[in-house]
Amino acid sequence: MQLTHTRIRIVTEIKRRQVIRAGTTVEQMVRAIADMIVTGFFVPGERMDEISLAARFDVSRTPVREALRELGAMGLVDREPNRSAVVANVTEAYLHSMFEAMSELEAICARLSAERMTVDERRSLELEHRASAKLVHAGAEEAYAAHNTEFHTRLYRGAHNEHIFELVTQTRARLAPFRRAQFRLPGRLAKSYDEHDVIVTAIMRGDVAAAGQAAYSHVAIVSDASITFATAKNA
Amino acid sequence: MQLTHTRIRIVTEIKRRQVIRAGTTVEQMVRAIADMIVTGFFVPGERMDEISLAARFDVSRTPVREALRELGAMGLVDREPNRSAVVANVTEAYLHSMFEAMSELEAICARLSAERMTVDERRSLELEHRASAKLVHAGAEEAYAAHNTEFHTRLYRGAHNEHIFELVTQTRARLAPFRRAQFRLPGRLAKSYDEHDVIVTAIMRGDVAAAGQAAYSHVAIVSDASITFATAKNA
DNA sequence: TTACGGAAAAGTGTATGCAATGACCGTGCC
DNA sequence: GGCACGGTCATTGCATACACTTTTCCGTAA
After folding, report:
1. Residue range B83-125, pLDDT digits in tens
2. Is any atom of strand C within 7 angstroms of residue A7's beta carbon?
3. pLDDT digits (tens, 9 = 90+) for B131-172
4. Which of A53, A150, B156, B191 has its CA 20 to 30 A from that of B119?
């Protein structure tokens, strides 16, 4: 392909780059495939064979394999020797364990945030939170979901612990496919806002214990809602 | 190589298998390289180019590349596009964040263990712990280190949360290269035993808060010792 | 009709080759 | 003398070829 098809190669290269993003081919594919999994384009349990993926992205199997390996390490796909990769389909028990871990990790982040956030961070957190009230009133699920992600990310960052940030981010990524619909439950938006409010208040006061407690229950509630959906879908 | 050198291939194959372990080539290499990093054969900052590794293990670059990618995902090596992989050399700040995360995670495990361990698990934990007193008296650093690993693993398992088990295991693996010498500090063995004792007692009593507290400080102490070594070595 | 065997097909695992990027080093210019 | 520039070399990135394993499917026999 290198010699005769160079021109074609360049064209597809450009096309690919605009579809995906910058970086090496493998990085692009990791992001692209992860997105497709997280957004539900590929559903848990679905088989992802290297050849189809290679064809779909117009690359050889080599980068696809490396991308799948990375996704496997991230826990987004399951791989077994001589078998196609499969979109990770976790057991209910494991799902529970991830949600519980998420609660614990968020509690840690909230506690550390209450302790360590700079004044700027505290101010932004509060502003952002107050602003989200509008979204609740408008019932803007999509927009609130985006705000929610941002809100939690602030908490993770506020802990000022890079490794914990990585752990919690990674866990959240793995959970993403299973909690897509969390804000569909009636009244969930308003309750979420109230729960955030308790967390913010505790952090502003520097009340470590209260912040941790509030974050823990907040995530636990989200977990219940999500597990309801996830298991209902599987049934 | 496939056709003419099949016999040679088989021979080296056998040689490789006895040196490393079972599984696909990539899996074997991941384990082998991870071991070499964790045991200090490769030191943090050391460059690991694909060609040398391929030659060393007598395989092609393809499985080496995949192994390195996986090790990168595990955090044991740093990779940048078009650059050789490098044994992860973390900043002191990041090291601190990992140790702090470790304390928090161990605290969670201890709390959950106090709550959830079966009677069998509790009994084994206590027996194993008591048995280690002999190692302390004998000053058997190596053996005590092995016991110590086992002790903590019991705690992780006792939490009965698979995902947290993975998070803590993964963090421990990444820290391994930086705390090899922790039991060299004079008197550390006996202190470690005493600290374990507090944890075990709390777990046997089902005292969740005390178990968490004890585990947190135990790990924090180990961290300090390790950081002393790690930074001294780098200086 | 179903169970079994076996060949073909499909797909993964590894090796190898070419392209491309970045590091290194020497040369010429300022 | 130092620095910019250019070429070479070492090494990674990706594509392709082939080997090996697993699955599928079909024909045959019980």
Report:
1. 999 999 888 899 999 999 999 999 999 999 999 999 999 999 9
2. no
3. 999 999 999 988 999 999 999 999 999 999 999 999 999 999
4. B191
d(CA A66, CA A72): 10
Is the Cβ pair B163, A100 closer than 8 Å? yes
Which nucleotide is nearest to A24 if distance is taken from CA to C1'?
D13
Q: Which nucleotide is nearest to A54 (CA to C1')?
A: D15
Helices marked H in chain B — which ranges? 6-19, 25-38, 50-57, 61-74, 92-116, 119-138, 141-158, 162-175, 188-205, 208-234
> Can you tell me which residue has its alpha carbon closest to the C1' of nucleotide C13?
A82
Report in angstroms the alpha-carbon separations of A233 from A156, A176, B19, B224: 30, 15, 47, 48
Strand, coil or helix: B87: strand
State the best of B95, B111, B167 to mutate against chain A, taking most chain A CBs within 10 Å. B167
CA distance B179 to B38: 10
Distance from CA of B135 to the nearest CA of A (A): 33
Long-range contacts of residues A13-22, Cβ cutoff 8 Å, at least 24 apart? A15/A58, A16/A57, A16/A58, A16/A59, A20/A57
Distance from CA of A197 to the nearest CA of B (A): 25
**Which chain A residue lies closest to B160 (C-alpha atoms)?**
A97
Report pTM.
Answer: 0.85
Q: In chain A, what is the greatest distance between 2 CA atoms, to the nearest angstrom?
A: 68
